[in-house]
Design a protein that fits this description.
Helix content is 59%, strand content 5%. The chain contains 3 helices and 2 strands; from the N terminus they run αββαα. Strands 1-2 form a two-stranded antiparallel ribbon. The longest helix is centred in the N-terminal third of the chain and has 45 residues. It is flat. The mean pLDDT is 93.
């Protein structure tokens, strides 16, 4: 299927894409800054909550509680290989399994515009 686009339409689309791409980059950078600032505050606030043995802090927005949560590390080939080596004595078999897993991963192909 061929899409015929006039030069004017193409120029307009490119300008819109450039504008949106720049805006998204700025938002991404700002979000990164906010996350880092929030992480610093969380660290300081957590220490204060623990020092003062507070169960919660009441705010006009609601209550804040310090809770623990489990975060699992990503499932990597290195982790799988190490785990399999603990269960299977045959290193060659472990390598075959890892190779098979790598070969049979689902591949998703998408199109993306990039700056050059």
């Amino acid at each position: 299927m061929s899409l015929v686009v006039s030069t004017e339409d193409l120029d307009t689309l490119v300008k819109k894409w450039v504008l949106l791409d720049r805006q998204l980059k700025m938002i991404h950078e700002k979000t990164k800054e906010w996350r880092e600032a929030k992480a610093q505050i969380v660290e300081k606030l957590s220490k204060q909550i623990e020092i003062h043995k507070l169960s919660e802090i009441e705010t006009s927005e609601g209550k804040i509680r310090l809770m623990e949560k489990k975060e699992y590390t990503p499932l990597t080939y290195g982790f799988l290989e190490t785990s399999l080596q603990k269960m299977i004595d045959d290193n060659e078999k472990v390598q075959q399994i890892i190779s098979q897993l790598k070969k049979n991963r689902e591949i998703k192909i998408t199109k993306e515009l990039v700056w050059k």
